[in-house]
Design brief:
about 500 residues; alpha/beta; Rossmann fold; Dna Ligase, domain 1; five-stranded antiparallel sheet; four-stranded parallel sheet; globular
Length: about 500
């Protein structure tokens, strides 16, 4: 079972706050067995002195030696001690500071604030607090801003509990702490019901998330049956990742948004991640994927990659692929950024249009099929199969209209694995192995004896009454069971 500690200089420092058995003194933490634990241990270091050889410094040092997940880390503590280091990293806040009014300064042309777990008291400084906390995750960060024609960070300092003296500030610290890590307020009996904690990342603004609300609830129920507690998190919970043992991304992934950032951090924190950053990187760019599949002799549609809309590029597409053809931007999803062309005039127009949003465009031969295969693969083993039929009167399984939130979609079914043609299954497994050992959805077309892999999805759709149509609860159980297996494996080899 995982452990959680809040380390303070003296237990009296925690007196203004809600009591908890998770709060221990520096001496108590020092007296803990020095051997590393196979269980995940999380530490929030609230000791006063973060200077070299101080208690705060040694708390973080001992935590890292014991392989405990601690904030602040030694590297963060060291960076904050030297202006020559942290001053270089304050550039990301320049945009935030540029929006701060000159009138906010005091008589010394300064503005001072306390940031508690990334939270500030002034709404106009919210972005500043989050940005600085992402780079310097410490419980209390004292910031001084200087105005000399424009605002800049003049001083960064790690604060302490003893310096929070007013009732209002203590209330604000407690609220921020509660939001950052609610585990400290849980009753021990509740925590002991679960062996592991799994974060499920969702994006409330995602118009087409890979799992609907019913599916997410079924994931949570499957996890509970296996002794895993789940919690839905969003992009606001970046600094909380160390609280968990695993991260399950249930939002449309991209290397340019928070999903990739979360996957990288979770992997660095030692969490079990689906999907991992390498899988996201390999799957979300169609140029990379097309080249990877071709280099490894995986059957695919004829593909040409062009960098402009010139007559030469058009001729290359026509001569090597022919018309009709399908044009795609590298990072499109759910049939967005995909266009079918049947004439050279349409080809020229489409190339110019797609080049506005991407420096490269993929052109693939058009293969007519009544449906696309989707083979769900987990840890290089087939998990489920679906057939997605084209929208009536349309050439894709999705048809985007005026409202991007509600595209039309075709029918579907979910045949058993053993009914999938052998050629389809072999191609799907071969493609998935090139990506990794995570959870993937391989899309294929089958025209007679010919099979072609269209793409590999790193976080395939798993919706209620669609992908789970045949397996029901067993589908959710299998995925969560794989998380459990990998968590147990990490605990076994954690030394």
């Amino acid at each position: 079972m995982s452990a959680f500690y809040v380390v303070v200089d003296d237990l009296e420092d925690w007196k203004p706050y809600f009591p908890s058995q998770d709060v221990i003194s520096f001496e108590q933490y020092l007296a803990l067995e020095s051997k590393t634990s196979r269980a995940r241990t999380r530490v929030i270091n609230c000791c006063r002195n973060s200077t070299a050889l101080g208690r705060g410094y040694y708390t973080s040092l001992l935590a890292e030696a014991r392989r405990h997940h601690v904030i602040p880390s030694i590297s963060v503590t060291n960076d904050l001690r030297r202006k020559s280091l942290w001053s270089i990293d304050t550039a990301p806040v320049a945009k935030v500071l540029s929006r701060l009014a000159a009138a906010d300064q005091d008589e010394d042309n300064q503005l001072s604030l306390n940031i508690y777990f990334g939270e500030v008291s002034e709404p106009r400084l919210e972005s500043l607090g989050k940005t600085l906390f992402e780079r310097y995750p410490v419980p209390v960060l004292q910031v001084t801003l200087q105005f000399d024609g424009q605002w800049r960070v003049q001083k960064l300092r790690q604060g302490s509990l003893s310096e929070i003296s007013s009732d209002d500030e203590q209330v604000r610290f407690a609220a921020a702490f509660d939001r950052f890590s609610h585990k400290i307020w849980r009753k021990p009996k509740v925590r002991q019901q679960y062996r592991y904690d799994l974060a499920i990342y969702v994006d409330p603004e995602d118009p087409m998330p890979p799992s609907d609300e019913t599916a997410l609830k079924r994931f949570a129920k499957a996890a509970e049956r296996l002794g895993i507690k789940t919690e839905q998190i969003t992009s606001n919970d970046y600094q909380r990742l160390a609280e968990f043992d695993g991260l399950f991304i249930r939002a449309t992934t991209s290397i340019d948004d928070a999903t990739y950032k979360f996957a990288r951090k979770a992997e660095a924190e030692g969490l079990v991640v689906m999907d991992d950053p390498q899988s996201i990187l390999r799957c979300t760019n169609k140029v990379y994927l097309a080249d990877l599949l071709k280099a490894n002799a995986v059957p695919t549609p004829k593909t040409v990659i062009v960098s402009n809309a010139s007559a030469e590029s058009q001729e290359k597409i026509i001569s090597e692929i022919g018309l009709p053809a399908v044009l795609k931007i590298p990072d499109g999803a759910f049939s967005r950024g995909v266009e079918k062309v049947g004439t050279q005039a349409e080809l020229a127009k489409s190339l110019k249009h797609l080049r506005r949003s991407s420096s490269l465009v993929l052109a693939q031969e058009y293969m007519y099929t009544e449906y696309d295969w989707r083979i769900g693969i987990l840890n290089n083993k087939p998990l489920f199969a679906c057939r997605y039929f084209m929208v009536e009167g349309h050439w894709q399984i999705y048809k985007h209209g005026d409202d991007p939130q509600t595209p039309d979609s075709g029918n579907f079914d979910a045949p058993p694995i053993w009914e999938v043609p052998l050629k389809v299954m072999d191609a799907a497994l071969k493609a998935a192995r090139l990506i990794g050992d995570g959870l993937y959805g391989v899309d294929l077309k089958q025209a007679g004896d010919r099979v072609a892999v269209i793409e590999v999805n790193d976080n395939p759709s798993i919706d209620s009454e669609v992908e789970d149509l045949l397996l029901g609860d067993a589908l959710y159980h299998e995925i969560i069971a794989e998380f459990l297996r990998r968590m147990e494996q990490k605990r076994q080899y954690r030394v």
